[in-house]
Specification:
Layout lengths: L10 E2 L1 H7 L16 E4 L4 E7 L16 E4 L2 E5 L9 H7 L1 H4 L2 E7 L12 E13 L5 E6 L5 H7 L4
Parallel strand pairs: 3-6
Antiparallel strand pairs: 1-7, 2-3, 4-5, 5-8, 6-7, 7-8
């Protein structure tokens, strides 16, 4: 695996994360990434870009996933609605320990910041699949390697 230098708890734009994961090049611009999940093959890493509070005007009904913090060290994440446990992507999400792939969680409270610009993501860091249920989407509980800060936990928890 290539070394990825992103600090846990730091804020990044999507473009900065894509660059750190060696996803971008002259042939593949950052604007080619449009979804909330990215498989960065060179880093053997799935990066999950989570928007915690989704506005119906910005997201379709099939992308209103329930992603939230269970505790400072546990995060509930839902795969894309078309991902099944039997798909190659679903198997990669669920067998990361056995296959040596990685998951990187990044979260932001809302899509836009107070100036109507794009909100940056807080890097929650590496995460490991603990359990899952369902399919299309797959509901996965991830254990974070480093607990999230209290302010991020408050934003990310359902009680916020």
């Amino acid at each position: 695996m290539q070394q990825v230098t992103l600090r846990t708890d730091a804020h990044y734009t999507a473009e900065e994360v894509l660059s750190a994961l060696d996803y971008c090049s002259l042939e593949r611009l950052p604007s080619s990434f449009r979804e909330g999940v990215l498989w960065a093959e060179s880093a053997q890493t799935d990066a999950f870009f989570v928007t915690l509070k989704k506005a119906e005007r910005d997201y379709s009904p099939t992308t209103m996933y329930r992603d939230y913090a269970i505790s400072p060290g546990l995060f509930h994440w839902e795969s894309q609605s078309r991902t099944s446990v039997d798909s190659a992507t679903g198997r990669r999400y669920l067998t990361q320990r056995e296959t040596g792939t990685h998951v990187l969680l990044l979260a932001r409270e809302t899509k836009s910041n107070e100036w109507n610009g794009t909100q940056s993501y807080t890097c929650l860091g590496p995460a490991t699949c603990l359990k899952h249920e369902g399919s299309r989407p797959i509901a996965i509980t991830y254990e974070l390697r480093h607990p999230m800060p209290v302010d991020v936990f408050k934003q990310a928890s359902l009680t916020a």
